[in-house]
Design goal:
two-stranded antiparallel sheet, 12 helices, 2 strands
Length: 321
């Protein structure tokens, strides 16, 4: 068994005793759970799409490995280095979002994906965490630096990202970053009047999205009044919870994955419910909750305002999504 001593002043030792090992293990368990669920849900969908049975599993494992390595590498960086890395990633992601608008193929009425090396990448997923880190730094600077227009810069940055997302259109992601930015704005101690104006504009934006985008109106109407339209996918997904009960039908015994076209993505929770049961669903929810609450707990003990606000923002981003 490997033992690490505090007397050893190597970079690995410094990292070992400063990183939140419990939180990292929880994230790795969640990532491993995702691979297991991909094995359960995706082969049936892949075969229906004319792909090899494990095409989606292999892609999932590739991105899981890359994500784990990137997470570990970033955890070795200092807060200043993290902000520099986030700035580079944000600039690259914003450029990619502009590129998406002009070059990406339209899928279901939206342009959101870039094809790179045979894989589809969604630039907004890279923009969100980078935006949180940079806007956290700007909001923190706005409280302590009078000679720097940090607050206007944070607001302009938010408006730029929100505009690029609306143009796709991606109302869900726009709402997500708006909620996170609004909560960070409030927590950072900005004037309550500004927060109130922002909340009012946010509610106006929600109404504008409902009135402007037919697919948003359709989804809201179906949610509020399920019998008013076709909810066959949702109905089938809900039936999987009844079929699975508390302990599920067993791995590989479910049928919902052969019916729903998005069983390996949007409806993977239905596969979990049917094959592993409600207990497994609750365990996954508790794991998500633990990660969010653990991060928020440690943010309260962080002395640097920019780092504290970034941790809060990233936890909210992860939890709300």
């Amino acid at each position: 068994m490997m033992r690490v001593s505090r007397a050893d002043r190597s970079r690995f030792t410094d990292w070992w005793f400063t990183v939140d090992q419990t939180l990292m293990v929880a994230v790795l368990i969640l990532m491993g759970t995702g691979v297991v669920l991909s094995l359960a849900a995706s082969p049936a969908v892949a075969l229906k799409k004319g792909l090899s049975a494990y095409a989606f599993v292999e892609r999932h494992m590739l991105f899981t490995l890359v994500g784990a390595l990137l997470m570990t590498a970033v955890s070795f960086l200092s807060p200043r280095q993290v902000r520099r890395f986030a700035l580079v990633m944000l600039l690259a992601a914003l450029s990619a979002l502009v590129l998406v608008h002009f070059t990406a193929a339209e899928v279901n009425g939206a342009r959101r994906w870039l094809s790179i090396g045979g894989h589809s990448l969604q630039p907004s997923e890279f923009a969100k965490p980078a935006f949180v880190v940079i806007s956290a730094w700007l909001l923190a600077e706005a409280r302590k630096t009078t000679g720097m227009p940090a607050l206007p810069m944070a607001i302009v940055l938010y408006l730029l990202l929100a505009t690029l997302l609306v143009l796709q259109p991606d109302v869900g992601q726009t709402f997500l970053i708006s909620a996170v930015f609004g909560l960070m704005f409030f927590v950072s101690g900005q004037p309550l009047l500004y927060a109130g104006v922002g909340a009012t504009l946010g509610l106006g934006g929600l109404w504008a999205a409902y009135a402007t985008f037919p697919h948003v109106q359709y989804r809201v109407d179906r949610f509020l009044n399920p019998i008013s339209g076709d909810n066959s996918q949702v109905d089938r997904a809900l039936q999987s919870f009844t079929a699975g009960g508390f302990f599920g039908l067993g791995p590989g015994e479910g049928t919902i994955k052969t019916i729903l076209p998005d069983a390996h993505t949007d409806f993977i929770f239905a596969v979990v419910a049917e094959e592993y049961g409600a207990i497994a669903c609750l365990a996954i929810l508790l794991l998500f909750a633990f990660i969010v609450l653990r991060a928020l707990y440690f943010s309260a003990r962080e002395g640097d305002p920019a780092t504290r606000l970034a941790v809060i923002g990233l936890a909210l981003l992860f939890g709300l999504q």
